[in-house]
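TICKET: design request
STATUS: open
ATTACHED STRUCTURE:
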């Protein structure tokens, strides 16, 4: 309903909470299409894999303070607590997502 007005900015709070993998994949595809269509998207999420897959920039907030801010590839691997599983398993390679691993292979 909100998208019918073609808002230039979308604010999403935990958009993947409660979604299964298939629904999450559909959401990712839809968000990519919206971004390609010119929408700016801001996500508040604990889903590190989602951030690694979609975000160009990541800001990590802890106890109300910004503790990291920068390009996704740099920020999400700067701390093992915030890294996606792909980065944890395949470190020190620069891959964050399964798609990046597939493309590299």
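STATUS: resolved
RESOLUTION: sequence designed for all positions
ATTACHED SEQUENCE:
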């Amino acid at each position: 309903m909100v998208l019918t007005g073609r808002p230039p900015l979308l604010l999403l709070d935990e958009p993947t909470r409660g979604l299964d993998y298939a629904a999450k994949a559909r959401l990712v595809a839809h968000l990519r299409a919206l971004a390609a269509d010119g929408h700016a998207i801001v996500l508040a999420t604990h889903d590190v894999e989602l951030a690694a897959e979609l975000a160009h920039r990541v800001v990590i907030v802890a106890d109300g303070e910004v503790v990291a801010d920068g390009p996704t590839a740099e920020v999400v691997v700067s701390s093992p607590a915030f890294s996606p599983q792909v980065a944890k398993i395949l470190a020190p390679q620069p891959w964050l997502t399964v798609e990046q691993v597939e493309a590299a292979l």
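CLOSING REMARK: The chain has a mean pLDDT of 85. Helices lie at 21-36, 48-54, 72-75, 85-90, 98-104.
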